Every structure is written in structure tokens, then in C-alpha cells.
């Protein structure tokens, strides 16, 4: 996985590299895929997706964050296949996306409805709050989208009194599925 440089801050924090690695494995992006993202924020996922997918449509409703995404794309020399849209989801989503990443919980049920309507093959949603994870899991199930739920936590080492201790990041709940139904390992069923 190539390094992602994020010199511009969105005050919301990027999706952590380890989480992006799992996310990208679950999405299994290829050069013919049209990847759509809800909530580009810093552009960390947008950058990674643009390096793999044929086309990327990234939505961000916050004007400052869309500018941060734009600057970080430029800092990583990512150009050409990315359509940045200052828009709300689901209205700003393309009708021909193959893959979808939902990075925030705002309007996620309407986003899932749009994904079903347009036949999005692979969907991943990251959630950091337990109550939202439960409700989103039910929303995936109700739409017959759910293939897998993964919960994981990353801890980072730091020096403490000449030894190594760890600070834990918040856990992440990753909901995986889509209209194309994927197996728990991220591949087709």
C-alpha cells in the first residue's frame, strides 16, 4: 500500500491507515470500478481508492472539508479520475457506482436505499458508535445487503519508562455487503 500524505487537516481526522487497509480489501477495487464515497473529509480514502479504481466520485457536504480533500489529492499527485462533489448523500451519488464507502452515519438509510435502487455491488460502512453500528446492521439486513460485520481496534505503541506501552484508538465497526453479496472474507459468495 503506497503512503498517503495528509498535510491538510479537516479537524475530523482521517480514516486510520490500518482501517483503510481492511476497507480496501473488502471493497476489492479494480481498474474498471466506479467507487463512490460518502464523506471524503481529509481525502485519505479518496486517495487510496483513486489509486485502484477506474473512477472515483467523492461526496462531502462541508465546503472546508471538500477543499481539504482537494488539497490532499494534489499533495499525493492524484488527478484525473476523481469527481469531487460538494453535496449531500444520497442526492449527490452517481447512479452507476460499483462500490460504495459510507464514512459517516448521516442519512445512511437513504444512502443504502439509493445503493439498492442503483445496484451497488459492494458496500462498506465504517461506524465508531455502538448504537449506530447496531442500527446500521439492522438497516443492512432489512435491505438484504449484509454479508459481514467486523469489529476491530488498533493500538499504537509508545515509549513508557524505557519500555513499550500502547494507546488504543476507538474501535471501528465495519459493515460489509452489497447487492452483489460478498462473503465474510471480502470475496464474492
From TrEMBL:
Molecular function (Gene Ontology), one example: cobalt-precorrin-6B C5-methyltransferase activity
A biological-process GO annotation: methylation
Positions of S-adenosyl-L-methionine binding: 15, 39-43, 60, 89
A Pfam short name: PCMT
Highest taxon listed in the record's lineage: Archaea
Keywords tagged on the record: Cobalamin biosynthesis, Methyltransferase, S-adenosyl-L-methionine, Transferase
Pathway membership, UniProt: Cofactor biosynthesis; adenosylcobalamin biosynthesis; cob(II)yrinate a,c-diamide from sirohydrochlorin (anaerobic route): step 8/10
KW S-adenosyl-L-methionine (keyword) present: yes
EC annotation from Swiss-Prot or TrEMBL: 2.1.1.196
Identification of the protein by name: Probable cobalt-precorrin-6B C(15)-methyltransferase (decarboxylating)
Lineage, opening ranks: Archaea, Methanobacteriati, Methanobacteriota, Stenosarchaea group, Halobacteria
Gene responsible for this protein: cbiT
Amino acid at each position: 500500500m503506497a503512503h498517503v500524505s495528509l498535510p491538510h487537516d479537516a479537524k475530523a481526522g482521517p480514516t486510520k491507515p490500518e482501517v483503510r487497509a481492511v476497507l480496501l480489501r473488502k471493497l476489492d477495487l479494480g481498474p474498471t470500478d466506479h467507487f463512490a464515497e460518502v464523506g471524503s473529509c481529509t481525502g485519505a480514502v479518496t486517495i487510496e481508492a483513486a489509486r485502484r479504481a477506474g473512477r472515483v466520485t467523492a461526496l462531502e457536504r462541508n465546503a472546508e472539508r471538500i477543499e481539504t480533500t482537494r488539497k490532499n489529492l494534489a499533495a499525493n499527485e492524484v488527478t484525473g479520475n476523481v469527481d469531487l462533489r460538494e453535496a449531500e448523500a444520497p442526492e449527490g451519488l452517481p447512479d452507476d457506482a460499483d462500490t460504495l464507502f459510507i464514512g459517516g452515519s448521516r442519512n445512511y438509510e437513504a444512502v443504502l436505499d439509493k445503493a439498492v435502487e442503483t445496484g451497488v455491488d459492494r458496500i462498506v460502512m465504517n461506524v465508531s458508535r455502538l448504537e449506530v453500528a447496531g442500527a446500521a446492521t439492522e438497516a443492512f439486513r432489512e435491505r438484504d445487503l449484509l454479508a459481514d460485520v467486523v469489529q476491530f481496534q488498533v493500538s499504537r505503541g509508545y515509549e513508557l519508562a524505557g519500555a513499550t506501552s500502547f494507546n488504543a484508538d476507538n474501535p471501528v465497526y465495519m459493515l460489509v455487503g452489497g447487492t452483489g453479496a460478498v462473503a465474510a472474507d471480502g470475496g464474492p459468495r
